[in-house]
Amino acid sequence: MLSASVAEVHDFALTVRALVDHYPNERDVTASIADTLAELLADKAFTLPASHITAHPDHYVMYPLYVAPDGAFSIASAVWNVGQRTPVHGHETWGVVGIYSGVEREVRYAKPADGVVPERLGEHDWSPGEVTVCCTTDDDVHAVSCAGDLPCVGIHVYGANIGELRRRSYDADTGDVAWFVSPWATPATS
Ligand SMILES: [Fe+2]
């Protein structure tokens, strides 16, 4: 029998599937997913299992909550321990992020041409229940860190299998680009 949380993630994935299939452009699909993700996070009965919110001592992790069989989208639980951060990076697809617990600090950059130093646009702290469209393919560059003294957990929805997608990281000082894959973490066992 499914736990309530697993069932809710399953229902959320079905909704995302319908929205991805319905909307032909990234602006509409991300706006509609943001609305439904906000509803999920507002449900006080919704909890992620411990296996998907466990921080790694050395680096941030992304656990798969759902990966569409055709690769059209994926849903991740992303966990930053206190003090952990990403480099400046892109996604090469659209993305929607909602905060489950803790505070995520996002610094946004203009998407640079190759070899150009990324222009810093500003930063924002996202708190539990808040949802942001972090990325569209043409505006997808940021750096993320855990703010505060508790680990940060977010539910991230991307327009691809994010655990297998090649994407860019940027040297914030030189603009040098390195391609990377952020592979799925194996859910923790108790
Ligand atoms: Fe990101």
From TrEMBL:
Protein's name according to its UniProt entry: Putative metal-dependent enzyme (Double-stranded beta helix superfamily)
* InterPro entries per record: RmlC-like_jellyroll (IPR014710), RmlC_Cupin_sf (IPR011051)
